[in-house]
Amino acid sequence: MAQHRTTLAADGRLRVEKVVSHAAPAQWSTPYRPETRRLLWPGNATAELRNARGELFADPLTVFTLAAGEPYRMRHQAAPGERASFVVSELEDEGLASLQAGAAWLLAPLPLYRMRCHWRMLRAGRDGTAATEGLLAPVLAASAPAPWQESRAVRRVRETLAAEPGARLSLHELAEVACITGFHLARLFRAQLGMSVHEYRHRLRLAAALQSLEEGERDLAGLAHGLGYSSQSHFGAVFRAALGTTPALARSRLAE
Questions:
Q1: Do the Cβ atoms of 164 and 228 come closer than 8 Å?
Q2: What is the pTM of this model?
Q3: Neighbours of 41 (CB within 10 A)
Q4: Which of 71, 79, 160, 231 is a Cys-bridge partner for 33, taking CB atoms 3.0 to 4.6 Å apart?
Q5: Are the CB atoms for 22 and 82 separated by under 8 Å?
Q6: Parts of the chain belonging to CATH 2.60.120.10
Q7: pLDDT, tens digit, 9 for 90 and up, residues 232-241
Q8: Could you give the residue range(s) of every CATH 1.10.10.60 domain in the chain?
Q9: pLDDT digit string (tens) for 129-150?
Q10: 73 has which bridge partners?
Q11: Which segment of 80-94, 99-113, 132-146, 167-181 scores lowest on mean pLDDT?
């Protein structure tokens, strides 16, 4: 897969890169062994990761770390357009010492917004690796651990919701996708992800909203409808409750 890597910031301790790749058929990469400890965020894409720890489904909420020398393979799910992800590489021992290698997190809405704002500042040259170091630990501490080796039923539901977060699917309809009862799905989902199906979909919708706003989306009514909200005012109220700002102000900050 053709990739374009841009270094956003670097010093003797860390390097932060944006990696843009174009749509391609979903297939597993060749095994890769990072030379340094790394943190990866797939950004607007979904992907699967395999290594000695198991298999991780990485949606737009997921951030994960890799140990130096730990081989892994990835498969990005087919999607139109460009995929943009971010990689933080440790250039000096202990540069990412506060982060456990081989861990994964599901970002809560406010930490996700803070991280997107930080990447925007890096692209504009107004932040550096010191700010990256200072941001990561509190952002990840405020987020839930992502599961390795989740059940097939939960994976199917996560894939369905990540592919179309605005779909108005009931718990019963999602349970049919998972081939289990709604009661069983609700229990499994909370046990494995630490949140309800409703909360997970809520986070995915806000992640999709932030992606659209970063791209400069101005039709907030259309965005609200596409994400499954009953109205623009409903969307605005949910957005503000989770992020402490309005969609218009978030757009001005992310797309400036």
A1: no
A2: 0.92
A3: 22
A4: 71
A5: yes
A6: 3-145
A7: 999 999 999 9
A8: 152-254
A9: 888 888 888 888 888 899 888 9
A10: 50
A11: 80-94
Low-confidence winner among 40-44, 143-147, 158-162, 177-181 (lowest mean pLDDT): 40-44
- Rounded to whole angstroms, the Cα distance separating 193 from 145 reads 7
Instruction: Please tell us whether the domain made up of 152-254 is placed in CATH 3.40.50.880.
Output: no
Say which CATH topology domain 3-145 has.
Answer: Jelly Rolls (2.60.120)
pLDDT given at position 2? 64
DSSP line for the chain? --EEEEEEEE-SSEEEEEEEEE-----PPPPB--SS-EEEE-TT--EEEEETTEEEEE-TTEEEEE-TT--EEEEEPP-SSEEEEEEEEE-STTTTTTS-TT-EEE--HHHHHHHHHHHHHHHTTS--HHHHHHHHHHHHHTSEEPPSS--HHHHHHHHHHHH-TT----HHHHHHHHTS-HHHHHHHHHHHHSS-HHHHHHHHHHHHHHHHHHTT---HHHHHHHTT-SSHHHHHHHHHHHHSS-HHHHHHHH--
Asked whether the beta carbons of 71 and 20 are under 8 A apart, the reply is no
Q: What are 17's two structure tokens?
A: 């890169």
Residue for token digits 């910031």?
Answer: 9
Q: Looking at residues 97-110, what average pLDDT do you find?
A: 85
